UniProtKB/TrEMBL annotation, chain A:
TM stretches of this protein: 43-64, 70-94, 115-141, 153-176, 183-202, 244-266
UniProt-recorded name of the protein: Transport permease protein
Protein's UniProt keywords contain rRNA-binding: no
Record-level GO cellular component terms: ATP-binding cassette (ABC) transporter complex
Keyword Metal-binding on entry: no
Any single biological process term in GO: response to antibiotic
Chain ranges of the ABC transmembrane type-2 domain: 40-273
InterPro entries referenced in this protein's UniProt entry, alphabetically: ABC2_TM (IPR013525), ABC2_TM_bact-type (IPR047817), ABC_2_transport (IPR000412), Nod_factor_ABC_transporter (IPR051784)
Principal location listed in the UniProt entry: membrane
Keywords in alphabetical order: Antibiotic resistance, Cell membrane, Membrane, Transmembrane, Transmembrane helix, Transport
Bilayer topology term: Multi-pass membrane protein
Family from the record: Belongs to the ABC-2 integral membrane protein family.
PANTHER family for the chain: NODULATION PROTEIN J (PTHR43229)
UniProtKB/TrEMBL annotation, chain B:
Chief location: membrane
Protein topology in the membrane: Peripheral membrane protein
InterPro entries xref list: AAA+_ATPase, ABC_transporter-like_ATP-bd, ABC_transporter-like_CS, ABC_transporter_ATP-binding, DrrA, P-loop_NTPase
UniProt protein name: ATP-binding cassette domain-containing protein
Organism name: Aeromicrobium camelliae
Family: Belongs to the ABC transporter superfamily. Drug exporter-1 (DrugE1) (TC 3.A.1.105) family.
Domain of life: Bacteria
Length: 275, 323
């Protein structure tokens, strides 16, 4: 053997990256079909935003005084609530996939292992963006009056997409580590609960001091404030509209950090978890 | 079966579950060899350790001790190389219920990185070969158990593996579907694929395998060709059923030698199976005035083999326990 032996790294590495990309695409196609062909969960994903929106505006809206039209105040929160529900479905779907027969086949193939997770993440984000659009349509019908330029709209959608991506990564991690799909369902409870302890549906100033501390320091609050600030131009004591830039930075930092941490954790846990 | 190079070599595989204080030994030192082009059946009852062995060989599970190589690649140190030459069709279906047959195969083709036109042609060929063309565009929810198994097998073949692992390919199928699976499996083997098969069915090992390793409680208790294993149990016998125990006893007396009354009305007598020998036996019985109601020549089955080797009937052979 001499050093004249062809160095296989260059072309092999390029090919590997190309194969990894095509593995992710193939798995995304699979995950999208699995989502679309689950009629029960599709139906709930469509009905839920409408129900929640109606409930907040007509049932609670009259009783809560936030100094403005409640539909306009609550819409960003409903968007996050519905995204949370979507993410919890992703946790369950991943958990089901982890114990299904397909996983053994995938793991015994020379493919990028976590591609199957990436597929779930991408399909889930796409689905939740559709749900978000639906929430916005319903909200508008119920009196949501945004006051935003095109740029502000794009910014708001970007932050929403980041949030969806972040919680989808968390959901994927949960789906990988739980033993049963039922356990993954517990994550849904947590995600549906989180926005309530924030400025999503009521100003934190109205909460008792200890809860207010939690509300003002959890990631949902800066995210909500950023979305609201961009779409409605409304601030709060915790995040005045004049200080939107730093609130937005905080929101983005939270999302990016959660995404990186949980994506890494999910793909590590995936590789480690063996039957 | 010409002797040829080993393609799967496992030696001293051990695996335990449970705590270190109370380990439950599942594999207790498994040694196996599969040669290129050969079919090896790992035959054993539920819980014997078949799936655990297959999972170790297909890089899904690390053994506590022992080594295994596939086509010269170590399953522990070069799993990716191993994955390039194997294909696994596990005990539980690896195909997606919500996709159509064609979509399932197309997914495998994409994951095999086949160029699109080649992928399409290969998918069509496999659908045809596995008799699934008509059902290709229906979702799997409408498939029968046999169709699902065939599709699962086809999905595992897209990449033309050198070694195919099939873990209990016909468990739970009705006899006709089982026959259909055996036919397609034999076709795959005829094309040169080496097959590592597990089964609880003695008849299946007899039908498909060149060599059988009988596994019980994590140990290989016997190994050989189906014929060799049968020989260990004994030659063929003619079994005669009589109308009464008295007639059976009379016949046994007339045959003397090594005739034996088995159940009170059944007499078993060794035979080479030739017409002349069976005729002469029947003549002697008739001369003694003991007309049998029914007779048949029976080769020893692998069931007999299992009983002889392990001293008990293959336990829980029909019971599906999640494992
Ligand atoms: N992950 C596991 N944890 C604990 N016990 C296991 C695990 N996997 C398999 N076993 C046990 O190992 C034994 C052998 O299992 P398996 O290899 O699946 O047998 P077979 O495929 O022959 O039915 C069984 O008793 C089963 O309960
Ligand atoms: Mg098994």
């Amino acid at each position: 053997m001499t050093t004249a032996t062809a160095n296989p790294t260059a072309s092999t590495r390029a090919q590997r990256i190309q194969h990894a990309g095509s593995d992710v695409l193939a798995m995304t196609g699979r995950a999208v079909r699995l989502v679309i062909r689950d009629p029960d969960s599709m139906l709930i994903s469509l009905v839920l935003p409408i129900t929640i929106m109606v409930m907040f505006v007509y049932v609670l809206g009259g009783a809560i005084d936030v100094g403005m039209d409640y539909a306009t105040y609550a819409t960003p929160g409903v968007i996050l609530l519905c995204a949370g529900y979507g993410a919890s479905n992703t946790a369950i779907a991943v958990a089901e996939d982890m114990i299904g027969g397909a996983m053994d086949r995938f793991r015994s193939m020379p493919i990028l292992g976590p591609a199957v997770l990436a597929g779930h993440v991408i399909a889930s984000v796409a689905k939740n963006l559709v749900t978000t659009a639906l929430v916005l349509v319903v909200a508008t019908l119920l009196g949501f009056e945004p006051d935003a330029s095109l740029l502000e709209w794009l910014g708001a959608i970007g932050v929403i997409a980041l949030y969806i991506l972040a919680i989808t990564c968390i959901a994927t991690y949960v789906g990988v580590i739980v033993r049963t799909p039922a356990a993954a369902g517990g994550f849904g409870f947590f995600m549906l609960f989180l926005p309530y302890i924030s400025s999503a549906f009521a100003p934190p100033e109205t909460m008792p001091a200890w809860l207010r501390g939690v509300a003002e320091h959890q990631p949902v609050t800066p995210i909500i404030e950023t979305i609201r600030g961009l779409l409605v131009g409304l601030g709060s004591d915790a995040a005045p509209a004049t200080d939107l830039g730093s609130t937005a930075l905080l929101a983005i930092a939270w999302c990016a950090a959660l995404m990186v941490v949980f994506l890494t954790a999910a793909s590590r846990a995936f590789s480690r978890r063996r039957g | 079966m010409p002797p040829s190079e080993p393609i799967v070599v496992a030696s001293g595989l051990r695996k335990s579950y449970g705590t270190s204080r109370r380990p439950v030994t599942v594999l207790d030192g498994i040694d196996l060899i599969l040669h290129r082009g050969e079919v090896l059946a790992l035959l054993g009852p539920n819980g014997a350790g078949k799936t655990t062995t297959v999972r170790i060989l297909s890089t899904l599970l690390r053994p506590d001790a022992g080594t295994a190589t596939i086509a010269g690649h170590d399953v522990l140190t070069a799993p990716r190389r191993v994955r390039e030459v194997i294909s696994l069709t596990g005990q539980y279906a690896a195909v997606d219920e919500k996709l159509t047959g064609r979509e399932n195969l197309a997914l495998m083709a994409r994951l095999a990185h086949l160029p699109r036109p080649a992928a399409r042609a290969r998918v069509d060929d496999l659908l045809e070969a596995f008799d699934l063309t008509d059902a290709a565009d229906r979702r799997l929810t409408t498939y029968s158990g046999g169709m699902r198994r065939r599709l699962d097998l086809a999905a595992g073949l897209l990449r033309r593996p050198q070694v195919l692992f099939l873990d209990e390919p016909t468990t739970g199928l009705d006899p006709r579907s089982r026959q259909g699976m055996w036919e397609v499996i034999n076709e795959v083997v005829a094309q040169g694929t080496s097959l590592f098969l597990t089964t609880q069915y003695l008849e299946e090992a007899d039908q498909l395998a060149h060599r059988v390793a009988v596994i019980d409680d994590g140990r290989v208790v016997a190994e050989g060709t189906p014929t060799e294993l049968k020989r260990r149990v004994g030659e063929a016998g003619v079994e005669l059923t009589f109308g009464s125990a008295a007639l059976a006893a009379a016949a046994a007396a007339a045959l003397a030698e090594n005739a034996a009354v088995q159940e009170d009305r059944l007499v078993r007598m060794p035979t080479d199976g030739s017409v002349a020998h069976v005729k002469s036996l029947l003549a002697r019985i008739e001369a003694a005035g003991a007309e049998p109601e029914h007779w048949e020549v029976r080769a020893p089955s692998l069931d007999d083999v299992f009983l002889t080797l392990t001293g008990r009937v293959a336990r829980a052979a029909e019971k599906e326990v999640a494992a």
